[in-house]
Each structure stands twice: as structure tokens, then as C-alpha cells.
Specification:
This protein has about 170 residues and is α+β, with helices and mostly antiparallel strands. It has helices spanning about 15-25, 30-40, 85-100, 115-120, 155-165, and strands at about 1-10, 45-50, 55-65, 70-75, 105-110, 125-130, 140-145, 170-174. The protein has one domain: Aminopeptidase, CATH 3.40.630.30. It has an 8-stranded mixed beta sheet with strand order 6-7-5-4-3-2-1-8, with helices on both faces. Bound molecules: coenzyme A.
Length: about 170
């Protein structure tokens, strides 16, 4: 069974993260400098999942702005998909939100990205609007998704069920 540890991203992780970025988004990936700038920002909460050989297999990024968090990036190495890694990273990021008294989480996602939309719906994100032609590389629309208040029972109960359902991998949360 795959075992990962989830830790805050540091500058030493950026080379590997950008390697995955290039695999996942060949035409519109973030640069190393983008990640260096992001993780240097006090508002940014970025996490990596590393296997037992310390190789990064997935990462997520989020900004905490007052009572709202904004997911800025999420990617799983193509060889490690459908193993619940995205869910594990979402769990780590959302636990970080609870620690920082965040109330709502939002994000934008390409309207064609069925896998990601399905992931976020699993965490009870709702589609609340659209940004037309938001993505510069292909003019695609972005769906805006939002949680309800994450402190409400409905969100928390669902979150607990997701956490209990992580069975395909062993996850050590830092
Ligand atoms: C979207 C992505 C992060 C999912 O990562 P993953 O580790 O494979 O996802 P998980 O195994 O944790 O699956 C969680 C849920 O996501 C959804 N999902 C994941 N892959 C899916 C697919 N190929 N088709 C449909 N739903 C999918 C499902 O709801 C799944 O829950 P289920 O297994 O109970 O059906 C991954 O496909 C990826 O990196 N895609 C490219 C980058 C990207 O699109 N990032 C999101 C930007 S907003």
C-alpha cells in the first residue's frame, strides 16, 4: 500500500513540484518563481504528499484571506491518480483551515475538468457562478465553487466520512 506523508511545501520542494506541473499542465504550468513567490507569502498554505522515498507525488496550494480560503492549485502525478491522494491533500488543507478559523473555501475550476469538479462536489463545494473565458491559454470558462460554512454540521459530518474513507493509502499528516 502506498504510504505518504503530507508536509508544508518548502523551497526545496519546488523543483519536483514544477516537474509535476509540467507533466500535468504542459501548456499552462506555473514557473518555479511562481511557487517560490507563493510559498514565501504569509497567506499561502501549500502542502506536498511525499512517498516513503521522499518523492513528491501530489501537492495543493491555498490562500487564507480573513475568513475565506482560496484553493490556488492541486495536482496529482499522473502515475498516482485515483488513489485518494487528492482527497488526502484536501483533508490536510481543510484541517489547516479549521486551525486558522477559516469559514468558507472557494476555488475556480475549468468547466471541462470533470474529475476535479467531482472531487470538490464530494467535499460539498457548490457551483455558484462562472467566470467567462477566465483561462488565457484556451479561453475556457471557470466554474466558481464555494463551500457552505465549514463549521456547519453538514460539512463537518461529510468531512468526517471522507476522512474515514481513506483506505487505499496510508497517510501521515504532519
Ligand atoms: C483532479 C485530481 C487532482 C484528482 O486526483 P486523484 O488523487 O486522482 O483523486 P482521488 O483519488 O482523491 O479521487 C477523489 C474524487 O475525485 C473524483 N475523481 C478523481 N478522478 C476522477 C476521474 N478521472 N473522473 C471522475 N471523477 C474523478 C471522484 O469524485 C473521486 O472520488 P471517488 O473515488 O469516490 O469517485 C487529478 O486528476 C489531477 O491532478 N488532475 C490534473 C490537475 C487538476 O485538474 N487539478 C485541479 C485543478 S482545479
Amino acid at each position: 500500500m502506498l504510504e505518504v506523508k503530507i508536509t508544508r511545501m518548502t523551497k526545496d520542494d519546488v523543483d519536483e513540484v514544477v516537474h509535476i506541473e509540467e507533466l500535468v499542465h504542459p501548456n499552462h504550468h506555473w514557473s518555479k518563481d511562481s511557487f517560490y513567490n507563493e510559498i514565501a507569502n504569509n497567506l499561502a498554505y501549500y502542502y506536498c504528499a511525499k512517498n516513503t522515498e521522499n518523492k513528491i507525488v501530489a501537492y495543493i496550494g491555498m490562500w487564507h484571506i480573513l475568513e475565506e480560503a482560496h484553493i490556488t492549485t492541486l495536482a496529482v502525478h499522473p502515475d498516482y491518480r485515483r488513489m485518494q491522494l487528492a482527497q488526502a491533500l484536501m483533508i490536510a488543507a481543510i484541517e489547516g483551515c479549521y486551525k486558522e478559523m477559516i469559514k468558507f473555501i472557494t476555488l475556480e475550476v475549468r468547466e471541462s475538468n470533470i474529475a476535479a469538479i467531482s472531487l470538490y462536489e464530494k467535499f460539498l463545494f457548490d457551483s455558484i457562478g462562472m467566470r467567462k473565458k477566465y483561462y488565457q491559454d484556451n479561453g475556457e470558462n471557470a466554474i466558481i465553487m464555494f463551500t457552505q460554512n465549514i463549521w456547519y454540521d453538514k460539512f463537518k459530518n461529510n468531512f468526517s466520512i471522507i476522512k474515514e474513507g481513506i483506505s487505499k493509502i496510508k497517510v501521515n499528516y504532519a
